[in-house]
Design a protein that fits this description.
The protein is 53% helix and 11% strand. It is of the alpha/beta class and 209 residues long. Helix 2 packs across helix 4. It has one domain: Rossmann fold. The chain has nine helices and five strands; from the N terminus they run βαβααααβαβααβα. It has a five-stranded parallel beta sheet, with helices on both faces.
Length: 209
């Protein structure tokens, strides 16, 4: 496709939105942006000694090319800097510019459908129970050699949910017109199929078919 078509995918940590987003982007040939990486990159710069707002204002694409951004410590740092209004404002234009690119774009995060791209042609909210998400995250971390217990991971998941959902600026919640995909009892293939179907319906609607 040649015109801009935006798919906004939101949801809490470890619900599967990243996996779904990448698969949807690959299926349709859309560009993909994991907006959480922006906040992780800001968190990394903050932990290295840069003030959070300055870190957001000076962020460059190269800052996202860092394997260490996927660590649990930076997930928590990202959640903390994301509550700062000036940080969110600094990253707004970056995200909206990406969303408007020709050829289609998939953005995943926590406020894409509600704040960043409220006019997105397709909005999805990918979720799962805290216990299911904690089990997934625990398995992922254990496979990487981390020693956190399941109980600690569950506590971290719930703490992050609370920060994300209760923050004043752009709290985590489904957009009013978002399709909800609960992955608690779905396989990856089933979750991706549900998302692809929603995007196909949006494409049909946008072309009047």
């Amino acid at each position: 496709m040649t015109g801009g078509f935006t798919v906004a995918i939101d949801g809490p940590a470890a619900a599967g939105k990243g996996t779904v987003s990448k698969a949807v982007a690959a299926h349709f040939g859309f560009a993909h942006l994991d907006t959480g990486l922006l906040y992780r990159a800001v968190g990394a710069k903050m932990l290295a000694g840069t003030e959070a707002i300055e870190a957001a204002q000076t962020l460059v694409p190269e800052d996202l090319e860092n394997d260490s951004l996927r660590t649990p410590a930076l997930a928590q740092a990202a959640s903390k800097v994301a509550v700062i209004a000036e940080v969110r404002a600094a990253l707004l234009d970056f995200q909206r510019s990406f969303a408007a690119r020709a050829g289609g774009a998939v953005l995943d995060g926590r406020d894409i459908g509600t704040v960043i791209c409220p006019d997105a042609q397709v909005k999805l909210f990918v979720t799962a129970s805290a216990e299911v998400r904690a089990r997934r995250r625990f398995a992922e971390l254990s496979g990487k050699g981390h020693t956190d217990s399941y109980e600690q991971v569950l506590e971290d998941v719930k703490a992050r949910d609370a920060r994300d959902m209760e923050r004043v600026e752009a709290p985590l919640k489904p957009a009013d017109d978002a399709a909800i995909i609960d992955t608690s009892d779905l396989s990856i293939d089933q979750a991706v199929a549900a998302a692809v179907a929603a995007v196909l319906a949006g494409l049909d609607a946008s072309t009047g078919e």
